[in-house]
Amino acid sequence: MISVAMATYNGEKYIVEQLDSIYNQTVKADEVIICDDGSKDNTQSIIRNYIVDKKLENKWKLYINEKQLGYIENFRKAITLTAGEYIFLSDQDDIFYPNKFEKMINVMHTHDDCMLLNANFEIIDENGIVTNNMRDKSRKRVKGIRKIDFRQWLFESCFPGFSMCLRYPMRDRIKNADFRNCYGHDIILGLIALDSNGNYEMDEVLSGYRMHFSNVTGGKNITNDYTVSNRVKQKNKELSEYKLLKNVITDNDFSNIDMDFLTQREKELKRRIDNLESGKIIPLVKLMLFTKAYPKRTIIGDMVYTIRSFK
Q: Which helix (H) or strand (E) holds 58?
């Protein structure tokens, strides 16, 4: 049985495109659970009309939250309301490519220990056109399918919820997880799968990730500000997230996590911030050559920002 867990809030602009992309899959969903967090626009009526027009009343269900939960808890609610063996997560503004369900379930069928599968994606703009965003170009996946560990998960740091398919045991884990310090439902899902030694990725592109400035997360991080001060701001935000990440790991008693590596990464990030603020290239070059906690291309990015500041 295939389930889709969707969280919505004021998503009227793009919601029909995403609903269409779910409806038009080569392998159909047995149920679609949509939890709306009190939208003030036409999102709820659009969803209701879509369900009626497509005669999906027996398979697609819309739940309206009595009080606003926030997107993290809204996703938890949607996931726990599903009944399927395979659960796909869906935002309200992205696009699933037609064979996404088929491709991902085929992989999970051949990897019995896979608790969470992350598919690759590409970035699309407000019109659904694939962009040449630098962040998209810089993300490289290992060819094929592989199980990832905590280090690889941190190295790639790009496994958003809409790219995931969960196996049903994840449902109970997420239901009982401690979210006090969690800064994203996809973060804790990734950690649960890592703790279960069942976090996988595939390189095939199966979704379009829509970047726009009304995104709850990604769109607000798009920038054309390539100043060192902006880079430092980004890295300080990352540093604060590492502190939260440690708390999330501790709060949930995750044991299959390399905390020493996280500590090393935190130390290197502090050095990166210090070097950026000082404007010194040579220490960044040395760190890039000998880093064990970051992909070299990431520190090269620091160097690019620093060089730009000389102009």
A: none
